[in-house]
Design brief:
single chain; 193 residues; mainly alpha; 5 helices; Pre-mRNA-splicing factor CWC21; mRNA_splic_Cwf21_dom; CWC21; nucleus
């Protein structure tokens, strides 16, 4: 036995006396709160902004969809045994047509419900557009900061308190003078009696 760890003697215990630490033991958590305080949470949330989609990736995905359709046409025409020059012209025509449609469709993006979960940038772009429509519908200014109303109200309260404090200090200064006068009058009356 060393350092008061383990058995004083392994005799009769059915063990070799070798001491191991308990790997199943869970250490207690820190005594700190498991969640940040409301003030800390609000401060951290103010700095969070909507994730901006990568326009390059969005454009790449759109062009990729066009090229997939062009490749399907090319594959179908090759299976039919069409001449290579004719395949190229038909593919170029389809590519131009699809790119023109893509430019027109860009303003009419698909709704969020039509997007898949793996289309992160498309979802972010749709969410930004949806938030912008909502902001315009509710007539919220672009420079609006969440909780700004409460800040203004708090500033008004601080201003009102700041104006009241000098008045209270003046009253406090007047009170001791009144108390001193009362004490003097009380002493005079005692002397007279």
């Amino acid at each position: 036995m060393s350092d008061n760890v383990g058995l004083s003697t392994p005799r009769g215990s059915g063990t070799s006396g070798y001491v191991q630490r308990n790997l199943a033991h869970m250490r207690p958590r820190d005594m700190a709160a498991p969640y940040p305080s409301k003030k800390d949470a609000l401060d951290s949330m103010r700095h969070l902004k909507q994730r901006q989609p990568d326009q390059g990736l969005l454009e790449h995905d759109r062009k990729r969809e066009v090229e997939v359709k062009v490749f399907e046409l090319r594959d179908r025409l090759e299976d039919e045994g069409v001449d290579e020059d004719e395949i190229e012209t038909k593919c170029d025509e389809l590519r131009k047509k699809l790119l023109a449609e893509m430019e027109k469709k860009r303003s009419n993006e698909p709704r969020r419900g039509q997007l898949k979960a793996h289309q992160i940038h498309e979802l972010a772009d749709a969410k930004i557009k949806e938030s912008e429509r909502l902001r315009q519908a509710l007539k919220i200014s672009k420079d609006y900061e969440e909780g700004s109303h409460w800040k203004k109200q708090e500033e008004r309260m601080k201003k009102a308190l700041a104006e009241q404090q000098p008045q209270e200090q003046q009253e406090r200064q007047r009170e001791p003078e009144d108390d001193e006068e009362e004490e003097r009058e009380g002493r005079r009356e005692r002397r007279r009696s």
